[in-house]
Amino acid sequence: VQLQASGGGLVQAGGSLRLSCAASGFPFRTYAMSWYRQAPEKERELVAGISSGSSTKYSESVKGRFTLSRNNSQKKVYLRMNDLKVEDTAVYYCNIQGSDHWGKGTQVTVSS
């Protein structure tokens, strides 16, 4: 199983980024996927999840600003992040929902 997150970077508050997670080594289309994030000195927290049927759920802190989607043919999940806030600064990880499979994260830094 491999999960590779990408698309992070440095952006000003109010800006946007789109994160991607490329998955391989498992039947992607049958699994729910999640994005988590971990800010410095904080615990990892769930940001959003998407079911195999593309139903989505979001944490209250990102609801209305982030959009999670998936492309089963490409074996990718995407996290579109709009109206970014300084408090969104973290390393973002994708995950097979409910599993211990984690890829390398991607750093998102939002400046004021």
The Cα radius of gyration reads: 13 Å
Please trace the helix and strand order, writing H or E for each element.
EEEEEEEEEE
How far apart the termini lie comes to 37 Å
Percent in helix: under 10%
Strand order of the largest sheet: 2-10-9-4-5-6
The count of helical stretches stands at 0
User: Structural class per helix/strand content?
Assistant: mainly beta
Mean pLDDT: 96
Shape: globular
- Main sheet: strands, sense, barrel: 6 strands, mixed
Strand content: over 45%
The beta-strand count equals 10
Low-confidence runs of at least 5 consecutive residues: none
Describe the structure.
The chain has 112 residues and is mainly beta. It has strands at residues 2-6, 9-12, 17-24, 33-38, 45-50, 56-58, 66-71, 76-81, 90-96, 106-111.
What attributes does this structure have?
112 residues; mainly beta; 6-stranded mixed sheet; 4-stranded antiparallel sheet; 10 strands; 51% strand; globular
Fold topology:
Blueprint: E1 2-6, E2 9-12, E3 17-24, E4 33-38, E5 45-50, E6 56-58, E7 66-71, E8 76-81, E9 90-96, E10 106-111
Parallel strand pairs: 2-10
Antiparallel strand pairs: 1-3, 3-8, 4-5, 4-9, 5-6, 7-8, 9-10
